[in-house]
């Protein structure tokens, strides 16, 4: 018989995302959520204890009946099935982790429960081409040994000559280099129809494991010495992104360090979907998973109904093409 705890667990199976704070290891986030889910599952009302029939003896007085015992059938609860005897119904629950964030970084962290781990494995493979968005906080004038603001300072330099126009040119140059790398690792003939259709649908990307690739790079705030970059990337690590900030400083004949890395999107999950620390409970996770399933269903319906207009001919043109083909076939021009 299905218990309330099992029914609740089935509602928890799927993908969801949380907001990982800076300075917290991803393992601590996962362990905290696992503990909260276990508490929520085991706090559900237990099933009524099963009953069994027992023959209980009742002594009688000597005046009422001959010497002996009177047996009566009584239904009693099976105490061996009591939670205090058997322990909690769920002893362990596995929460899978998607693309991980190192301790100094913050932002969207995708997690999975139950059969959602299979979908999570599909998202984390190199063949899915799932892009991620980050915001990088940088500061000109200082270089550290690990490219972050917590590292040991190894160099200081001037930055007064840096303008936003110069920064934008460097970013455009870096994006062009990464665009060439993207085409190189795609393993698709760029002159083919397949390459055009994949590019139109945003599916062009590495066919397997590749070096980190920046698919988008722009400055969204420039207040020297501080600046903020918005990055879209594939196969990246947070250490690599900090190194990118360092290399931007070198290209501008200065130095730069990364003061913060925040992931704002991981595939279909954004900051709006991320659960903050106070909402890492079983009920909130269940609601987040339900919302993800409903949005995924809507995306599938939209994908089947709407096709890329760039890949379609106008109706009038399509009709003319068909008529021309039929006329040629009738004349014997097409065999």
From TrEMBL:
What is an example of a GO molecular function annotated in this UniProt entry?
Answer: RNA binding
Q: Which InterPro entries match?
A: PsdUridine_synth_cat_dom_sf, PsdUridine_synth_N, Trub2
Segments forming domain Pseudouridine synthase II N-terminal = 91-238
Give the signal peptide as a residue range, or say none if absent: none
Q: Which GO terms describe its biological process?
A: pseudouridine synthesis; RNA processing
Q: Which CDD domains match?
A: PseudoU_synth_hTruB2_like
Region labeled Disordered — which residues?
294-335
Q: What family does this chain come from, according to its entry?
A: Belongs to the pseudouridine synthase TruB family.
What is the protein's name according to its record?
A: Pseudouridine synthase II N-terminal domain-containing protein
- Organism expressing this protein natively: Dicentrarchus labrax
Phylogenetic classification of the source organism:
Eukaryota, Metazoa, Chordata, Craniata, Vertebrata
């Amino acid at each position: 018989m299905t218990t309330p705890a099992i029914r609740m667990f089935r509602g928890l199976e799927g993908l969801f995302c949380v907001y990982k704070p800076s300075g917290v290891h991803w393992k601590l986030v996962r362990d905290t959520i696992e503990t909260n889910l276990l508490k929520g599952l085991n706090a559900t009302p237990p099933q009524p204890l099963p009953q069994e029939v027992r023959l209980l003896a009742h002594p009688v007085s000597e005046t009422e009946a001959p010497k002996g015992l009177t047996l009566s059938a009584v239904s009693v609860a099976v105490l061996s099935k009591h939670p205090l005897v058997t322990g909690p119904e769920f002893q362990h629950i596995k929460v899978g982790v998607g693309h991980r964030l190192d301790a100094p970084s913050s932002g969207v962290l995708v997690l999975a429960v139950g059969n959602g781990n299979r979908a999570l494995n599909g998202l984390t493979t190199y063949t899915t081409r799932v892009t991620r968005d980050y915001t990088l906080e940088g500061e000109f004038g200082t270089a550290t040994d690990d490219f972050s603001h917590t590292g040991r300072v190894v160099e200081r330099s001037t930055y007064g000559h840096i303008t936003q126009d110069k920064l934008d040119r460097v970013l455009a140059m870096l994006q062009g280099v990464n665009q060439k790398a993207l085409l190189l690792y795609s393993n698709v003939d760029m002159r083919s129809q397949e390459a055009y259709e994949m590019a139109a649908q945003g599916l062009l990307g590495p066919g397997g494991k590749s070096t980190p690739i920046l698919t988008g790079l722009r400055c969204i705030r420039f207040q020297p010495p501080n600046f903020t970059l918005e990055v879209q990337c594939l196969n990246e690590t947070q250490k690599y992104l900090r190194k990118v900030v360092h290399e931007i400083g070198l290209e501008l004949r200065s130095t730069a360090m990364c003061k913060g890395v925040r992931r704002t999107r991981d595939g279909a999950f954004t900051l709006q979907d991320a659960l903050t620390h106070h909402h890492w409970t079983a009920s909130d996770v269940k609601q987040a998973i339900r919302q993800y399933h409903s949005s995924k269903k809507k995306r599938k319906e939209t994908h089947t109904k709407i096709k890329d207009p760039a890949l379609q001919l106008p109706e009038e043109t399509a009709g003319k093409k068909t008529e021309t083909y039929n006329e040629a076939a009738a004349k014997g021009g097409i065999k």
